[in-house]
Amino acid sequence: MSPASYLTAPPRVAPIIVAPVVAFWIALAVLLLAVVGGIAYAVVRGIALWRQVKRTGGTLGAESARVADATADIQEHLDRASASGASLGDVYERLDGHGLTIAAGACPSVGIAGLTLGGGLGILGRRYGLTSDQLVGARVVLADGRVVDCDEYREPGLFWALRGAGGGQFGIVTTFVFRTVPAQDLTCFKVGWPYAQAAAAIALWQDWAPDAPDELAASLLVNSTGDLDEPVVTIFGAMLGTKTETADILDHLLVRFGADPVSATIEQMPHRAAKTFLAEHAPGAERSDGTTPVEPPGSSLMFARSEFFRRPLPPDAIAALVDSFADRGGTGHACELDFTPWGGAYNRTSTDETAFVHRNERFLLKHAVVLDAAAATHEREAARDWLARSWSIVHPHGSGGVYPSFPDPDLTDWGRAYHDGNYERLTHVKRQYDPDNLFRFHQSLPPVARSPDLGPQH
Ligand SMILES: Cc1cc2nc3c(=O)[nH]c(=O)nc-3n(C[C@H](O)[C@H](O)[C@H](O)COP(=O)(O)OP(=O)(O)OC[C@H]3O[C@@H](n4cnc5c(N)ncnc54)[C@H](O)[C@@H]3O)c2cc1C
């Protein structure tokens, strides 16, 4: 790929290129071995190598591939980036030095690859869309060992599929090129109520947050954590605006709500500091004393289920949801209901413009429970029972859509849930790029031949 060929983005925006160079050669070598030897090879292996490179700072035979060497040469628009398995935090940090960012999530340790390929929701999403909506090009190592560059004009079918359904399905993406946006100040807020207000807060939030200005991303969370006696209800998020503008909008909400919050924080801060605040002070992430525990990797276990909603939940469903949360006895140390507002730019792309189909939704609700990794079997079962109960209570009111980046192994019709009307086209793309189903896992797309009657595929 000629670096210049990726520089077709509108002049206001600049591309960042994240190219895991060493990991790319590893992936290519392993793929070639797999193909030559006829060994069924799953992308999981490639990802494991990626992760190893990431963990070791790129010492998998090449010191030079250190994550810290990730370069985003924004000013000169050069293809010089070489980040091995870049995390979202790496990308944010590099871009921030140039006063730029991308619309993406808040958790810095999440991989840019998985996040982008499954969609990518985040604080700027209602303003700019999904992370995958910002993707302008990608380089992919295919199942047959070929390396292809794809964008709107080259391999457009693959490029379409990568944006929302690309995680481990069609090949290993070694380069992502994104549109960037200015890293402006954000005003972060966190307003808490006692659990007794949970039902009223949910009812109010669902009529307000999805219709709020695009600049506002206000989630509602209900959390129980080990060191808190009673669950708390929090409206948490950030606004692309000043403290005064944000306070004005929140004041209106509080007046409508009528119940006094037990805690309230609102603070305007530079973009990077806001991202840190959002990652470290999310309800459930910090202890009641305001500190954020640093847990060693693998020390906890999370079960989660989620669904999109196109209409507000009726009062009886909210009441049952809140009752079920209160009655979660024995489910472990942390349970969460996480309502994320949709609408805005998320819904301004049509359902078939990219593979990400969830474009007519109002909000996403995730039910999650976190346990100690050493939890006994009966504790795990209790956790999963609560999860199934909580999800089932609201499911009759859901759209049936599930965010692909929150995979749910218990879904029966996962193809429809993740991809709905785009499912068939995705199976044809799969057939075109991975006919032998080399990249496969539980819930991966099957390769299906396209009917000749349907004409050429783009
Ligand atoms: C703590 C936490 C916070 C999160 N916050 C957010 C958030 O704010 N917003 C949001 O949208 N999501 C969020 N997520 C979900 C996250 O987007 C998904 O878990 C995502 O899959 C993570 O990507 P990864 O590369 O880290 O994971 P992995 O498990 O490595 O990969 C996920 C999938 O992508 C595939 N994959 C990975 N790399 C490549 C590649 N280079 N080429 C092809 N396929 C690849 C893997 O095979 C796998 O199928 C969060 C998850 C966690 C655990």
Structural class: alpha+beta
CATH topology term of the largest domain: Vanillyl-alcohol Oxidase, Chain A, domain 3
- Overall mean pLDDT stands at 81
Tell the overall outline: globular
What are the low-pLDDT stretches, counting only 5+ consecutive residues below 50? 1-14, 19-84
Beta-strand segment tally: 13
Helix content range of the residues, please?
A: 25-40%
* Bound ligands: flavin-adenine dinucleotide
Distance between the termini: 20 Å
How would you briefly describe this protein structure?
The strands form 3 sheets. A 7-stranded antiparallel sheet has the order 10-7-9-8-12-13-11. A 4-stranded antiparallel sheet has the order 1-5-3-4.
Topology:
Layout: E1 15-18, H1 21-36, H2 43-55, H3 88-96, E2 100-101, H4 112-117, H5 125-128, E3 135-142, E4 147-150, H6 156-165, E5 171-179, E6 181-182, E7 186-194, H7 198-208, E8 216-224, E9 232-239, H8 243-257, E10 263-269, H9 271-280, E11 300-309, H10 315-326, E12 334-341, E13 363-372, H11 377-394, H12 414-419, H13 423-433
Antiparallel strand pairs: 1-5, 2-6, 3-4, 3-5, 7-9, 7-10, 8-9, 8-12, 11-13, 12-13
This protein binds flavin-adenine dinucleotide (FAD).
Task: Explain what you see.
Helix content is 31%, strand content 20%. The chain is an alpha+beta fold. It folds into 2 domains: 3-182, Uridine Diphospho-n-acetylenolpyruvylglucosamine Reductase, domain 3 (2-Layer Sandwich), CATH 3.30.465.10; 186-397, 3-Layer(aba) Sandwich (Vanillyl-alcohol Oxidase, Chain A, domain 3). The strands form 3 sheets. The protein has a 7-stranded antiparallel sheet. A 4-stranded antiparallel sheet has the order 1-5-3-4. Strand 3 (135-142) and strand 4 (147-150) form a beta hairpin. Helix 7 (198-208) packs across helix 10 (315-326) and helix 10 (315-326) packs antiparallel against helix 11. The chain starts with 14 loop residues before the first strand and ends in a 25-residue tail after the last helix. Flavin-adenine dinucleotide binds at residues 43-44, 47, 105-107, 110-111, 113-115, 117-122, 167-168, 172-173, 405.
